[in-house]
DNA sequence: ACAAGTATGCACCTTTTGGTTAGTACCTCC
DNA sequence: GGAGGTACTAACCAAAAGGTGCATACTTGT
């Protein structure tokens, strides 16, 4: 029984591979908010309600290392840094749209079943 | 400024709501494997490579409480229990398909950028 | 002059997540 | 008759995720 290419790479399936990139509590939300437009660090933080500085920086760094987010440091003082999706990141963020819509449609039920 | 219905319910956005249901390391994979067909506990465990009994039971219970997975205990000895997606679960699993395809297309890159 | 905003890094701590082992009660296969 | 499969649960422990507060170095607004 030949192993599939996916399994040779150490993934269970394509979904498992994708979760390596967007897994975690904050990454999908970050991608989602950058999807509408690129944002400064502070703007992003205000969008992703409840995230701490530490988490936001860390997750952005992860996303950058996977090539889905690009960081532009304007080297100004006070600091000014922009975050944007790369084309790859944009294609990934698009796949989250159906999930987002599902959440909107069923949010009442989700809220009631703790 | 009026708060949106989503925010009244305590969610940042629809995506945030959906993540309450499918958040975590294993839940998306469980849904994905149940999408093709309903499975017995042991079958599912063999599909979701690497999951422990504890995690699989726990996550299945969570998914059941959110109404996306249904559990059928045949009350036999030795035990026989089937897990299947509910219609709601099926609609959720469908939203994961694009993500799965994205993962397949980009798995080489994902594997290389640790 | 002083507070607040700016984008982080660091150290410390708590919470959540996840793994391991053992146990159940019965069956089938060798 | 002992091993292994079946679908779990509970207790215990380790690891990862996540939160808080402090520090930076300079600007703008009060």
From TrEMBL, chains A, B:
GO terms for molecular function: DNA binding. It comes from the Bacteria. Residues 13-111 form the HTH hxlR-type domain. Pfam families: HxlR (PF01638). Keywords: DNA-binding, Transcription, Transcription regulation. InterPro entries: HTH_HxlR, WH-like_DNA-bd_sf, WH_DNA-bd_sf. This is Putative HTH-type transcriptional regulator YtcD. It comes from Enhygromyxa salina. The lineage of its organism: Bacteria, Pseudomonadati, Myxococcota, Polyangia, Nannocystales. The gene is ytcD_1.
